[in-house]
Design goal:
Blueprint lengths: L21 E5 H14 L7 E2 L1 H5 L3 H11 L3 E4 L2 H9 L8 E4 L9 H7 L2 E4 L2 H14 L4 E5 L11 H9 L8 E6 L11 H16 L7 E2 L40 E13 L4 E2 L5 E2 L4 E6 L16 E4 L2 E6 L7 E4 L11 E5 L5 H8 L3 H7 L5 E5 L4
Parallel strand pairs: 1-17, 2-3, 3-4, 4-5, 5-6, 6-7, 7-8
Antiparallel strand pairs: 1-9, 9-12, 9-16, 10-11, 12-15, 13-14, 13-16, 14-15
Helix pairs in contact: 1-3, 9-10
The structure holds pyridoxal-5'-phosphate.
Length: 384
């Protein structure tokens, strides 16, 4: 028999100590965003989703910030992520941690129980596995139940939901905390599917045994659709990190992320000289080009080639030429005296993660979760 060991591979064993680029994460803004969302609900019950390393911002500081702000329940996607969250609370009051991907491997049940982590039960087989596990332990262990109302991704499908409504004793012996579902079009407020999913979910939860803490539907976007989407708790993620809930109203969330770098080198070029790979950017006259140590390997997506904006001091300048793996080039012709070492801002309250995402043809979520591990990370705010 052979055994193998897997371990995480950090980019640098001791962290990026000499990085020219700094990612600043405002923990107070995360706390304020969570409170704003919670206070929008009539019931005042908000959980938080911090999957994918806290949307790329670092799960430990993000988790501690939210718990200090009053959040008691945190959602992640994977069991390993849940264990990582709990390791941030050694010697502190730990939050409840729920795993969205659920009990797909019944042999994980003991790991859930050992750590006090809650699985989401996504099909009848998972319900049965958890029920048996509870029976064997002679303890009603907590779990959530996911009903698919339109995502066709995870959760009990229509047939299984019908079976469970007809045979609710399948949940006997399980400490069911919440029944939940997830919205497909919450970021499009006038999409007809919103009302359909909401009504279907309300109908199903009325016909299932009531969970101890009730029902839960809304993520960030649906939290802005109105109080009839709030049920007994909301489950926001991206809005906590400054992402816009939709495009129809101004974004009420506080920006969380600032990405700044320093010019590595400045040069003057004249036609017919060009900039970067593929000679993709030509110039019309004498042009000053500055180079910055941020590239697609740092999550500054290659799709931003020739479209992203940067700021040198207070002057708005275009990113020109293709984004390389480690470098981008900006046109600083309009910044007299621009020189190596000058500060360049790529993401902040003026050029938000959503602005960058729009230019890259993606969503703020992808910008956040792509933020690179070569940046120096600076956490600011009371919780830092
Ligand atoms: C990611 C996720 C959320 C959070 O979504 P946001 O749009 O980031 O608020 C909530 N629920 C489920 C099931 C998710 O997968």
């Amino acid at each position: 028999m052979s055994t193998s060991t897997f371990r995480a591979a950090p980019m640098y064993p001791s962290g990026p100590l000499h990085a020219p680029t700094t990612l600043t994460i405002d923990l107070d803004a995360i706390a304020a965003n969570w409170r704003l969302l919670r206070d929008r609900t009539a019931h005042g019950v908000a959980t938080a989703v911090i999957k994918a390393d806290g949307y790329g911002l670092g799960v430990e500081p993000v988790a501690r910030t939210l718990v200090d702000a009053g959040c008691e329940t945190l959602f992640v996607a994977h069991l390993d992520e849940a264990i990582a969250v709990l390791s941030a609370f050694v010697g502190r009051v730990a939050p409840r941690v729920v795993v969205l991907n659920g009990l797909h491997d019944p042999s994980d049940a003991a790991v859930y129980a050992e750590h006090g982590i809650m699985p989401i039960l996504n099909d009848l087989g998972q319900i049965e596995a958890w029920r048996r596990f509870c029976g064997a332990r002679e303890t009603r262990l907590p779990a959530l139940l996911h009903i698919d109302t339109g995502m066709s991704r995870l959760g009990l499908d229509r047939t299984e939901t019908g079976t469970l409504i007809a045979e609710p004793n399948r949940l006997d012996g399980v400490d069911l905390r919440f029944v939940m579902s997830h919205m497909a079009c919450g970021d499009t407020p006038d999409h007809p599917m919103n009302r359909e999913q909401r009504d279907r979910f309300a109908d199903i939860t009325a016909r299932l045994p009531r969970a101890a803490e009730g029902a839960m539907l809304a993520a960030s976007s649906a939290s802005f659709l109105g109080s009839d989407y709030h049920f007994d708790a909301i489950r926001p993620g991206v809005a906590l990190f400054g992402g816009r809930p939709n495009t129809v109203a101004p974004n009420p969330m506080r920006p969380v992320v600032t990405l700044e770098s320093r010019i590595l080198q400045v040069r003057r070029i004249d036609p017919p000289e060009t900039v970067g790979y593929g000679a993709a950017h030509g110039v019309e006259g004498t042009t000053m080009i500055a180079t910055i140590a941020v590239g697609y390997a740092d999550g500054f997506l290659r799709a931003l080639s020739n479209s992203a904006r940067a700021r040198v001091g207070e002057t708005d300048v275009p990113v020109v030429g293709r984004i390389s793996m480690d470098l981008i080039t900006i046109d600083v012709t309009n910044v007299p005296g621009a020189k190596a070492g000058d500060l360049v801002t790529l993401i902040d309250a003026r050029e938000t993660i959503d602005d960058v995402a729009d230019k890259a043809g993606t969503i703020g979520y992808e910008i956040l979760t792509s933020l690179g591990s070569r940046y120096a990370r600076r956490y600011v705010g009371a919780a830092a």
